[in-house]
Amino acid sequence: MGMSVTISAAAEQDAEQIFRLQYLCFQSEAALYGNYRIAPLVESLDAIRHELAADCVFVARLGDEVVGSVSGRVTEGGAALISKLCVHPRLQGHGIGARLLRAAESALAQEHGATRFRLHTGHRSEGNLRLYRRVGYQAVGTSQGADGVLMIVLEKPDVSYAATA
Question: Which of 41, 43, 73, 121 is 20 to 30 A distant from 49 in Cα terms?
Protein backbone atom coordinates (compact mmCIF):
# COMPACT_ATOMS: atom_id res chain seq x y z
CA MET A 1 0.00 0.00 0.00
CA GLY A 2 1.30 3.56 0.76
CA MET A 3 3.84 5.00 3.13
CA SER A 4 3.14 5.58 6.81
CA VAL A 5 2.81 9.02 8.33
CA THR A 6 5.51 9.64 10.93
CA ILE A 7 5.52 12.25 13.70
CA SER A 8 8.78 13.96 14.70
CA ALA A 9 10.21 17.18 16.03
CA ALA A 10 10.36 19.81 13.30
CA ALA A 11 13.73 20.89 11.96
CA GLU A 12 14.86 24.25 10.62
CA GLN A 13 14.63 22.97 7.04
CA ASP A 14 10.88 22.30 7.55
CA ALA A 15 10.05 26.02 7.80
CA GLU A 16 9.01 26.52 4.15
CA GLN A 17 6.85 23.40 4.06
CA ILE A 18 5.15 24.40 7.34
CA PHE A 19 4.59 27.91 5.95
CA ARG A 20 2.90 26.56 2.80
CA LEU A 21 0.92 23.91 4.72
CA GLN A 22 -0.43 26.46 7.20
CA TYR A 23 -1.53 28.71 4.35
CA LEU A 24 -3.37 25.81 2.69
CA CYS A 25 -4.93 24.39 5.85
CA PHE A 26 -6.21 27.61 7.37
CA GLN A 27 -8.08 28.67 4.21
CA SER A 28 -11.15 26.75 5.37
CA GLU A 29 -11.07 28.50 8.76
CA ALA A 30 -10.76 31.88 7.04
CA ALA A 31 -13.73 31.06 4.79
CA LEU A 32 -15.79 29.93 7.79
CA TYR A 33 -15.37 33.35 9.40
CA GLY A 34 -15.11 35.47 6.25
CA ASN A 35 -11.76 36.67 7.55
CA TYR A 36 -8.59 36.05 5.55
CA ARG A 37 -6.41 37.98 8.02
CA ILE A 38 -6.29 35.23 10.66
CA ALA A 39 -2.83 34.82 12.16
CA PRO A 40 -1.71 31.61 10.38
CA LEU A 41 -2.48 33.19 6.99
CA VAL A 42 -0.54 36.39 7.57
CA GLU A 43 2.41 34.95 9.48
CA SER A 44 5.76 35.41 7.75
CA LEU A 45 8.25 32.70 6.90
CA ASP A 46 10.72 34.42 9.26
CA ALA A 47 8.17 34.17 12.09
CA ILE A 48 7.90 30.42 11.48
CA ARG A 49 11.69 30.11 11.48
CA HIS A 50 11.78 31.95 14.83
CA GLU A 51 9.06 29.65 16.18
CA LEU A 52 11.06 26.58 15.15
CA ALA A 53 14.06 27.91 17.08
CA ALA A 54 12.15 29.00 20.19
CA ASP A 55 9.14 26.70 20.58
CA CYS A 56 8.25 23.01 20.57
CA VAL A 57 7.13 22.22 17.00
CA PHE A 58 6.19 18.81 15.63
CA VAL A 59 5.47 17.74 12.08
CA ALA A 60 3.73 14.81 10.46
CA ARG A 61 5.56 13.49 7.42
CA LEU A 62 4.49 11.34 4.53
CA GLY A 63 7.86 10.48 3.02
CA ASP A 64 9.65 13.82 2.66
CA GLU A 65 6.43 15.87 2.62
CA VAL A 66 5.28 17.72 5.74
CA VAL A 67 1.54 16.96 5.92
CA GLY A 68 0.79 18.25 9.42
CA SER A 69 2.22 20.47 12.13
CA VAL A 70 1.59 21.80 15.62
CA SER A 71 3.38 24.30 17.82
CA GLY A 72 3.55 24.67 21.59
CA ARG A 73 5.32 26.59 24.30
CA VAL A 74 5.14 26.74 28.07
CA THR A 75 3.88 30.00 29.57
CA GLU A 76 3.98 31.34 33.13
CA GLY A 77 2.38 29.07 35.67
CA GLY A 78 3.26 25.86 33.83
CA ALA A 79 0.53 26.03 31.20
CA ALA A 80 1.47 24.94 27.71
CA LEU A 81 -0.11 26.94 24.91
CA ILE A 82 -0.69 24.73 21.87
CA SER A 83 -1.39 26.42 18.55
CA LYS A 84 -1.66 26.14 14.80
CA LEU A 85 -2.52 22.44 14.64
CA CYS A 86 -3.05 21.65 10.97
CA VAL A 87 -3.24 18.57 8.76
CA HIS A 88 -3.25 18.58 4.97
CA PRO A 89 -6.90 18.48 3.80
CA ARG A 90 -6.39 15.23 1.88
CA LEU A 91 -5.27 13.47 5.07
CA GLN A 92 -7.73 14.86 7.61
CA GLY A 93 -9.88 12.37 9.50
CA HIS A 94 -7.14 9.75 9.89
CA GLY A 95 -5.97 10.55 13.42
CA ILE A 96 -2.92 12.60 12.42
CA GLY A 97 -4.10 15.69 14.34
CA ALA A 98 -4.57 13.66 17.52
CA ARG A 99 -1.10 12.10 17.08
CA LEU A 100 0.45 15.55 16.64
CA LEU A 101 -1.33 16.81 19.77
CA ARG A 102 -0.10 13.82 21.82
CA ALA A 103 3.48 14.35 20.63
CA ALA A 104 3.40 18.04 21.55
CA GLU A 105 1.73 17.38 24.92
CA SER A 106 4.24 14.68 25.79
CA ALA A 107 7.27 16.83 24.94
CA LEU A 108 5.87 19.91 26.66
CA ALA A 109 5.17 17.91 29.84
CA GLN A 110 8.30 15.78 29.96
CA GLU A 111 10.88 18.22 28.61
CA HIS A 112 9.42 21.60 29.60
CA GLY A 113 7.44 20.85 32.78
CA ALA A 114 3.96 21.72 31.51
CA THR A 115 1.27 20.98 34.08
CA ARG A 116 -1.71 21.64 31.82
CA PHE A 117 -2.42 22.35 28.17
CA ARG A 118 -4.40 25.21 26.69
CA LEU A 119 -5.53 25.91 23.16
CA HIS A 120 -8.22 27.88 21.39
CA THR A 121 -10.28 27.61 18.27
CA GLY A 122 -13.00 29.64 16.62
CA HIS A 123 -16.51 29.20 17.98
CA ARG A 124 -17.82 27.90 14.62
CA SER A 125 -15.02 25.37 14.13
CA GLU A 126 -17.04 22.27 14.98
CA GLY A 127 -14.53 19.78 13.58
CA ASN A 128 -11.75 21.26 15.69
CA LEU A 129 -13.95 21.33 18.78
CA ARG A 130 -14.88 17.64 18.28
CA LEU A 131 -11.22 16.65 18.00
CA TYR A 132 -10.17 18.62 21.07
CA ARG A 133 -13.02 17.22 23.18
CA ARG A 134 -12.26 13.69 21.99
CA VAL A 135 -8.66 13.96 23.23
CA GLY A 136 -9.64 15.33 26.63
CA TYR A 137 -9.89 19.11 26.33
CA GLN A 138 -12.76 20.97 27.99
CA ALA A 139 -14.02 24.48 27.29
CA VAL A 140 -13.00 26.86 30.07
CA GLY A 141 -13.98 30.19 28.56
CA THR A 142 -13.98 32.44 25.55
CA SER A 143 -11.77 35.21 24.24
CA GLN A 144 -11.74 37.49 21.25
CA GLY A 145 -8.93 37.04 18.78
CA ALA A 146 -6.96 40.03 17.54
CA ASP A 147 -8.83 39.53 14.26
CA GLY A 148 -12.22 39.85 16.01
CA VAL A 149 -13.16 36.14 15.90
CA LEU A 150 -14.80 34.74 19.06
CA MET A 151 -12.54 31.96 20.32
CA ILE A 152 -13.37 29.01 22.58
CA VAL A 153 -10.56 28.44 25.10
CA LEU A 154 -10.03 24.79 26.01
CA GLU A 155 -7.80 23.19 28.65
CA LYS A 156 -6.60 19.75 29.59
CA PRO A 157 -4.68 18.86 32.76
CA ASP A 158 -1.43 16.91 32.42
CA VAL A 159 -2.71 13.55 33.62
CA SER A 160 -1.39 11.32 30.87
CA TYR A 161 2.33 11.95 31.12
CA ALA A 162 3.09 12.47 34.82
CA ALA A 163 3.59 8.82 35.77
CA THR A 164 5.81 7.68 32.91
CA ALA A 165 9.14 6.48 34.24
Answer: 121
